[in-house]
Design goal:
This protein has about 325 residues and is α/β, with parallel strands linked by helices. About 40% of the residues lie in helices and about 15% in strands. The protein is built from eleven helices and 13 strands. The strands form four sheets. It has a seven-stranded parallel sheet with strand order 3-2-1-4-5-6-11, sandwiched between helices. It has a two-stranded parallel ribbon with strand order 7-10.
Length: about 325
């Protein structure tokens, strides 16, 4: 079985590829290796995969329409796990066109490739950010998600709509995964936990937004990978989306730890793992942020028998151990 993993040099993508390779799958990975954050970290993730005979890598940008079409015409993929995207809520305020190119046009190129090839199942990354200004918690997949508060969130909602249209028109089995604040070793340097550890070890203050009165459903990367792999094998049939009259072979799941943690408590866990106290600067809420995220994972549990459960303390200790080893501190 051949699996295409987009964003394979990324945080989640590299972990998913490793898991698939370890289970004996053939993995074809693509990534544009852009400089949104340290490219050497992306290359080092790739270096963990390239020795495996079952792995093939191609540097390719989703926005490259001809390159993407050539990819799908040349190779036969049974499954596509689409994890590539321009990430980051705050960066979307600075460079909105990067999100249109990658998350909209790039995703359309993936959908077109799946249409041409007739894949068995397309699994794609959405985000908890689609819940936007919703006040009801926990967030359930059948909640309305009509009020995004960032362009990044809007592109992810658009991805869900685009995917449903293709699933309906061409009967492509498609599943979208709304990830909730994924963290762990090899993570993204633009994420809060990464910045906090870096700053605390460097004796620099950390910015604590909304005076620390925020909650996040922190989800350890191994749990996310387990969810992706289980969902990949669970191909949706028509008429399975509970929140509409859709008959398309299409499904949405939340993948979150379903235990939101207050930001100040999160910082305490990091301080304990580092055995060092943080210097804090209290700041107001930032544009595009939301006060809380909280995943209802009942659909995920019912359909694939899994719900994330790694305790925050365990996950942060593993990240700190990796950070110290990787950066030699």
């Amino acid at each position: 079985m051949a699996v295409l993993v987009t964003g394979v040099a990324g945080f989640i993508g590299s972990f998913v590829a490793r898991r698939l390779l370890d289970s004996g799958q053939q993995v074809y990975g693509i990534d544009n290796l852009n400089d949104y954050y340290d490219v050497s970290l992306k290359r080092d993730r790739l270096a963990q995969l390239t020795p495996d005979e079952g792995f093939t890598f191609e540097q390719l940008d989703l926005f490259d329409r001809e390159g993407m079409l050539a990819l799908f015409r040349t190779h036969r993929f049974q499954y596509v796990v689409h994890l590539a995207a321009q990430a980051g809520v705050r960066y979307s305020l600075e460079n909105p066109f990067a999100y249109a190119d990658s998350n909209l046009s790039g995703f359309l190129n993936v959908l077109e490739g799946c249409r041409l090839m007739g894949v068995d199942h397309l699994v794609f990354a959405s985000s908890s950010s689609v819940y936007g200004a919703n006040r009801k918690v926990p967030f359930a997949v059948d909640d309305r998600v009509d009020y995004p508060v960032s362009l990044y969130a809007a592109t992810k909602k658009a991805n869900e709509l685009m995917a449903h249209a293709y699933s309906n028109l061409y009967q492509i089995p498609t599943t979208g995964l709304r990830f909730f604040t994924v963290y762990g070793p090899w993570g993204r340097p633009d994420m809060a936990y990464f910045k906090f550890v870096e700053s605390i070890l460097g004796d620099r203050p950390i910015q604590v937004f909304n005076q620390g009165q925020m909650k996040r459903d922190f989800t350890y990367v191994d749990d996310v990978v387990e969810g992706v792999v289980r969902v990949m094998a669970h191909v949706p049939a028509g008429g399975t989306q509970s929140d509409s009259d859709s008959q398309a072979p299409y499904k949405i799941y939340n993948i979150g730890n379903h235990q939101p943690v207050e930001l100040l408590r999160f910082i305490q866990v990091i301080e304990a793992a580092l055995d060092k106290t943080a210097q804090t600067i209290m700041c107001p809420m930032q544009p595009g942020d939301v006060p809380a995220t909280y995943a209802d994972v009942s659909d995920l549990m019912a359909d694939v028998g899994f719900a994330p459960s790694t305790p925050l303390e365990v996950g942060i200790e593993r990240f700190v151990a990796w950070y110290r080893q990787y950066y030699g501190v």
